[in-house]
């Protein structure tokens, strides 16, 4: 049994004396005996107590319950109530003051010792729990501050990244637009050279040959810049769906003329148009990007003498396009990367390209809320199928 410094608050001298002897017999130190709440508070103001044994029914302005409330507020000391009554009314009075224990008079020494031990044990556990709660609150507070600061840094980094992306997009757009004008001039000059070469000239074959090379190179550069401009807009979230009425026949002719003019091999395009309406409503620029890129790829990766089949049909308010070739195909191991930017399969050889075409196609189809699928074999070629809602 450990020794405690105990203050006895009891206005009955006989009960106080009996309690004092019982406590001293168990080697506890008695700080004093107070017969009122006021005296008890005076003693506690000058001495440290490990425990207070408190009679509930004290005479004077401060009874045991009021005195305990003050002790709970000012001093961190466990209080054990003493009372000759154990009725429900008395218990209801004391429960609000959170006593450490409750002893009914008359008490025996064994019961008293047990109550004291339980009271001290309860007090220690409550203090440990309070300490843990305080530590936890401090950790939560500290962690909250850390998370707040980390979030602030993250928001700054995101804002900085957004500014950099905006700057990058502006630079790409400005530089790309800057290239457009001189490329148009070069293309016009190349076409004029070809026109002049039609007249008698000793270097006519060479002029024609080099003018053709210039024209093709300019077209390739122009296509690359168009792709860069497209992704500049995509990264800036500026690609919008702008539907308008369009003549489908004229649209198909424009796509085929562009692809035919830029092809550098002897590959024929076989066109099948099925049940097409004269006019549809959709975004002609996005549709152009889809079919021009798919057809150009099929032609580019086919061999001389081969045929590309371009089938376009209208069914269920959808424009369904199929582009089938017998070209080099896409290796199975690389098909999962097909729509990634700058991806080019390992079997393309010396065929030039930017690796942007199919990623542009996928982005356009996503904006149009359509679907794209493909089947490819390095021995049989590739077939793309697109389904695009139109009205």
Automatic annotation (TrEMBL):
Annotated ranges, domain Response regulatory:
5-120
- What Gene Ontology molecular-function terms does this entry list? kinase activity
Keyword annotations for this protein, in alphabetical order, are: Coiled coil, Kinase, Phosphoprotein, Transferase, Two-component regulatory system
The record, for SMART domains, names: HATPase_c, HisKA, REC
Q: Which Gene3D superfamilies match?
A: 1.10.287.130, 3.40.50.2300, Histidine kinase-like ATPase, C-terminal domain
Q: What is its EC number?
A: 2.7.13.3
Report which residue ranges the record marks as coiled coil: 115-170
Give all residue intervals belonging to the Histidine kinase domain.
174-391
**Known catalytic reactions:** ATP + protein L-histidine = ADP + protein N-phospho-L-histidine
The superkingdom listed in its UniProt entry is Bacteria
Q: Which CDD domains match?
A: HATPase (cd00075), HisKA (cd00082), REC_DC-like (cd17534)
4-aspartylphosphate is found on 55
Is the keyword Translocase in the record? no
The name on file for this protein is histidine kinase
């Amino acid at each position: 049994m450990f020794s405690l410094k105990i203050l006895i608050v009891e206005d009955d001298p006989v009960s106080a004396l009996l309690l004092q002897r019982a406590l001293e017999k168990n080697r506890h130190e008695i700080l004093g005996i107070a017969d009122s709440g006021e005296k008890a508070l005076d003693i506690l103001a000058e001495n440290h107590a490990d425990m207070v044994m408190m009679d509930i029914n004290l005479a004077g302005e401060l009874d045991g319950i009021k005195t305990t409330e003050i002790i709970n507020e000012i001093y961190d000391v466990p209080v054990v109530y003493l009372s000759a009554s154990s009725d429900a009314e008395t218990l209801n009075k004391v429960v609000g003051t959170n006593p450490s224990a409750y002893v009914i008079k008359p008490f025996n020494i064994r019961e008293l010792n047990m109550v004291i031990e339980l009271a001290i044990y309860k007090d220690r556990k409550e203090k440990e729990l309070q300490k843990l709660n305080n530590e936890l609150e401090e950790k939560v507070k500290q962690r909250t501050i850390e998370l707040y600061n980390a979030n602030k840094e993250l928001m700054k980094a995101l804002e900085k990244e957004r500014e950099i992306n905006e700057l990058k997009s502006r630079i790409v757009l400005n530089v790309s637009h800057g290239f457009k004008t001189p490329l148009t001039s070069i293309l016009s000059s190349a076409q004029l050279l070809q026109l002049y070469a039609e007249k008698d000239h000793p270097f006519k074959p060479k002029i024609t040959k080099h003018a053709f090379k210039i024209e093709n190179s300019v077209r390739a550069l122009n296509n690359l810049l168009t792709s860069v401009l497209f992704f500049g807009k995509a990264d800036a979230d500026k690609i919008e769906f702008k539907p308008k009425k369009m003549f489908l026949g004229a649209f198909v002719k424009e796509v085929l003329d562009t692809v035919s003019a830029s092809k550098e091999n002897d590959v024929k395009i076989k066109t099948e148009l099925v049940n097409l309406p004269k006019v549809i409503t959709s975004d002609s620029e996005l549709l152009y990007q889809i079919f021009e890129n798919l057809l150009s790829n099929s032609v580019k990766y086919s061999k001389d003498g081969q045929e590309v089949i371009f089938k376009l049909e209208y069914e269920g308010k959808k424009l369904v396009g199929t582009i089938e070739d017998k070209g080099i195909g896409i290796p199975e191991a690389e098909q999962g990367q097909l729509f990634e930017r700058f991806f080019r399969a390992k079997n393309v050889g010396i065929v030039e390209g930017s690796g942007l075409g199919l990623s542009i196609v996928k982005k356009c189809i996503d904006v149009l809320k359509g679907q794209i699928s493909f089947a490819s074999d390095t021995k049989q070629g590739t077939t793309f199928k697109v389904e695009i809602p139109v009205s």
